[in-house]
Amino acid sequence: MAKGVIIQGSSRSEGDTSKVVSLLSAGTGYDIIDLNKKNIGHFDYDFNNRDDDFINLFKTIVTEYKTIVFVTPIYWYSMSGLMKVFFDRISDFLNLEKDYGRKLRGIKMASVSSSNDERFYEGFEMPFENSADYLGMEYKGHLHTWVKGNNVPEKVKKNISEFVTKQINK
Ligand SMILES: Cc1cc2nc3c(=O)[nH]c(=O)nc-3n(C[C@H](O)[C@H](O)[C@H](O)COP(=O)(O)O)c2cc1C
pLDDT tens across 108-160, in order? Predict the structure, then answer.
């Protein structure tokens, strides 16, 4: 099976989102990258953050993996700030070292949200789907998950398992 990676975008490494990430990793065998443990500065038009963790991290991702699953908590109806900054920084590779940026073409992307509520927000998925399209990536869809009192409900576990077999691995 082609190697994939899960990019975890929570502001706490051992919170609700990490529980969902663990289940996804167990179901796919994919590696995990925790953005909370990386030093990634905001996008800068003069590329003043080029010496932080992003450049090497991105090069590793596009070189080693065929699928990227973005897993983010819902913060203010949107993806987390950590994850949004990751997407902003992809712009570095549309300007500097374009050869690495082009490596995203053909890589698969899926997105997963987590919150404490089954309720999902219309429009949440749009930035993932449109970014995949813009970057020439193959978009595999979105799953919303929720955690109740530190536990992942059975229904969510079942949804994760189906998402892996019917969308990510399809
Ligand atoms: C800054 C912040 C903003 C949030 N905004 C929302 C929101 O708009 N909608 C929602 O359903 N939950 C919202 N939540 C709740 C989180 O989505 C929920 O607690 C999630 O499980 C947290 O995951 P984590 O432990 O990985 O951070 C918010 C939480 C935080 C900290």
Answer: 999 999 999 999 999 999 999 999 999 999 999 999 999 999 999 999 999 99
Boundaries of every domain in the chain: 4-168
Pocket probe mutation, ligand 1, options 7, 72, 75, 83, max atoms within 8 Å of Cβ: 75
CA distance linking residue 106 with residue 65, whole number of Å: 11
Q: Give the closest residue (by CA) to ligand 1 atom 2.
A: 75
Residue 95 CA to residue 144 CA, distance in Å, equals 33
Measure 62 CA to ligand 1 centroid, in angstroms: 29
| Residues within a 6 A CB radius of ligand 1 | 10-12, 15-17, 73-77, 114-117, 147
Give the DSSP letter string of 19-56.
HHHHHHHHHH--EEEEGGGS--PPP-TT-TTTTSSHHH
Which of the listed residues 19, 74, 121 should we mutate to test ligand 1's pocket, taking the one with most ligand atoms within 8 A of CB?
74
Computed over every residue of the chain, the mean pLDDT equals 96
User: What is the topology classification, in CATH, of domain 4-168?
Assistant: Rossmann fold (3.40.50)
* Model pTM score: 0.98
